[in-house]
From TrEMBL:
GO terms for molecular function: acyltransferase activity, transferring groups other than amino-acyl groups. This is GNAT family N-acetyltransferase. Coiled coil: none annotated. PANTHER family: GNAT FAMILY, PUTATIVE (AFU_ORTHOLOGUE AFUA_3G00765)-RELATED-RELATED (PTHR43792), N-ACETYLTRANSFERASE DOMAIN-CONTAINING PROTEIN (PTHR43792:SF1). It comes from Bacteroides caecimuris. The keyword Transferase applies. SUPFAM superfamilies: Acyl-CoA N-acyltransferases (Nat). It comes from the Bacteria. It holds the Pfam family Acetyltransf_3. Keywords: Transferase. InterPro entries: Acyl_CoA_acyltransferase (IPR016181), GNAT_dom (IPR000182), N-acetyltransferase (IPR051531).
Length: 179
């Protein structure tokens, strides 16, 4: 896999990415990725080598120096439907890199992987990802109240998350795609 945009490259992971991956996954910013928490470069390397069946997972690096700033992923749920997501290093926030990378992933899925529908789950309090979905032209299809739990409250009880669904169809992507 190799996608080049104006400022980034979406590519397969390289062993040299372990340090950068550890930087942003040592403390995941949203609860749904608590299970992706990494504590060593060895764990980061193992994470890069392992992907569940039917999951595509790619590094996002800066074009100028090939430093990893995030990753994008897509889980193929059936022949033409993908669930997408992303992780990004907070140090590179607010510069449009996540939008550039997510748009590259969606474009690849629609044009090369046969996607008809792409959707993503976003925790209701994850404002950055909700805005990113909207910038990509994805529509909010609903919000499930207390849908799932990833972490516990201080008293040990499960903390249930309100989870929104954003989606876009290939025909919608083809109409709005401007990048």
């Amino acid at each position: 896999m190799y996608i080049e945009t104006e400022r980034i490259i979406i590519r397969n992971f390289k062993q040299k990415d372990a340090e950068g991956l550890l930087e942003y996954l040592s403390n995941p910013r949203v609860n749904c990725f608590a299970g992706d928490r990494l504590c060593s470069e060895e764990a980061a390397w193992a994470y890069m080598q392992y992907s569940p069946k039917d999951m595509l997972r790619y590094a996002v690096s800066l074009k100028k120096d090939d430093f990893i700033i995030g990753d994008v992923f897509a889980l193929r749920e059936n022949e033409d439907t993908y669930n997408v997501g992303w992780h990004f290093n907070k140090r590179f926030e607010g510069k449009g890199f996540a939008c550039e990378a997510a748009a590259g992933l969606l474009d690849y899925l629609f044009r090369e992987a046969g996607a008809r529908r792409i959707y993503g789950f976003v925790e209701d309090d994850n404002i950055h990802s909700k805005r990113l979905c909207e910038r990509l032209g994805m529509r909010r299809e609903g919000c499930f109240k207390e849908f799932v739990t990833f972490v516990n409250n201080p008293d040990g009880s499960p903390k249930y998350e309100d989870t929104c669904v954003y989606a876009i169809l290939e025909k919608e992507w083809n109409t709005i795609r401007q990048w």
